[in-house]
Design goal:
By secondary structure, the chain is an all-alpha fold. 81% of the residues lie in helices and 0% in strands. It has one domain. The longest helix is centred in the middle third of the chain and has 38 residues. It is found in: Cell membrane.
C-alpha cells in the first residue's frame, strides 16, 4: 500500500494527493494516515510545498464526502423509516428509532461532522447520516472542511517532521482506528441485545 501511494504521488504530484484523499473517503482501506504523512515527507524533501499538500488533502477529503452524502440524501429519512417499519423487526429496529437517531443528528450533527472527520474508522461514514438528516450542504461542507483541515494539517506536519520515519504515523494511528471500529460494533451489538430484551419483555 505504501509503495502504491508513494508511486501515485511521485507520478501525479499534487493531483495524486487529491485523488488519493477522494478515494480514501470512498474506500477506507486507503488510509489518510499514510497518504498525508507521505506527502508531508515529500514536502520535507523539497519535492512539494507543505501548504499546497495540505490544501490538496483538504480538497480531496471534502470532495470525497459528497458521494456518500448524496446517497444518504437520496435514501432519505422517510424511506429509511418505511423500510425499518417493514423489515426492521429482524434487527429490532423501528421507524421510531430512526426518527430518534435523526433528531439526535439534527441537534448534534455539526459537532459530529466536525470532530468525526478527525476520527479514523468513522470519518468517511458520517456523510451518510448527514445526508439522511438533510443537513444543509453549506453547513456540511464548512464543518467537513474545518475538520478535514485540522486532520490533514496534523498528518502532513507529522510526516514533515518525522521525515523518512513518516510511516510511524500510520503505525501509531492504525490501532486507534481498530479500537474505534470495535467500540462502534460493540455499542451496536449492545444496543441490539438491549432492544431484543425489551421486545421480549414487552411481549
Amino acid at each position: 500500500m505504501a509503495d502504491w501511494v508513494q508511486g501515485l504521488m511521485d507520478s501525479m504530484g499534487y493531483l495524486g494527493i487529491l485523488l488519493l484523499m477522494i478515494l480514501e473517503n470512498l474506500f477506507p482501506p486507503i488510509p489518510s494516515e499514510l497518504i498525508m504523512p507521505s506527502a508531508g515527507f515529500a514536502a520535507a524533501r523539497g519535492d512539494m510545498n507543505l501548504a499546497v499538500v495540505i490544501l490538496m488533502g483538504v480538497l480531496g477529503s471534502v470532495i470525497g464526502t459528497l458521494p456518500l452524502y448524496y446517497i444518504g440524501r437520496a435514501f432519505g429519512e422517510e424511506r429509511l423509516v418505511a423500510w425499518a417499519d417493514k423489515y426492521g423487526k429482524w434487527l429490532t429496529l423501528s421507524g421510531k428509532d430512526i426518527r430518534k437517531a435523526d433528531d439526535w443528528f439534527d441537534r448534534h450533527g455539526t459537532k459530529a461532522v466536525l470532530f468525526g472527520r478527525m476520527v479514523p474508522g468513522i470519518r468517511s461514514l458520517l456523510s451518510l447520516p448527514a445526508g439522511m438528516s438533510e443537513m444543509p450542504m453549506p453547513k456540511f461542507l464548512i464543518y467537513s472542511a474545518i475538520g478535514s483541515a485540522l486532520w490533514a494539517t496534523a498528518l502532513a506536519t507529522a510526516g514533515y517532521v518525522l521525515g523518512e520515519n513518516y510511516d510511524r504515523v500510520e503505525q501509531y494511528i492504525s490501532p486507534i482506528s481498530k479500537i474505534v471500529l470495535v467500540a462502534v460494533v460493540v455499542a451496536a451489538v449492545a444496543w441490539f441485545l438491549k432492544r431484543r430484551r425489551e421486545q421480549q419483555t414487552g411481549a
